[in-house]
Design a protein that fits this description.
- The structure is a single chain.
- It contains three helices and no strands.
- With 65 residues, the protein is mainly alpha-helical.
- It has a domain of 40 residues.
- It is elongated.
- The model has no long low-confidence stretch (mean pLDDT 92).
Length: 65
């Protein structure tokens, strides 16, 4: 019987999640920058994904200087 490699299963789960959530994709590419300790990036990436999946034509981001 073949043994299941749990590290490979975890990696594939991360890859699938990154296909579905933009924040997870960013987290895999830059884990030091995109983490849950930076809620503004979680909010921004979530809003960007929501815009991408919507029928809206305009996405406006207002940020302080």
């Amino acid at each position: 019987m073949k043994q299941i490699d749990m590290k490979l299963v975890a990696l594939e789960a991360k890859k699938e999640l990154s296909r579905r959530e933009f924040f997870s994709f960013c987290n895999i590419l830059h884990p030091k920058d995109y983490n849950k300790k930076r809620p503004h990036l979680v909010t921004l990436t979530t809003e960007m994904q929501d815009f991408y999946e919507s029928d809206d034509d305009v996405f406006i981001v207002n940020l302080p200087p």
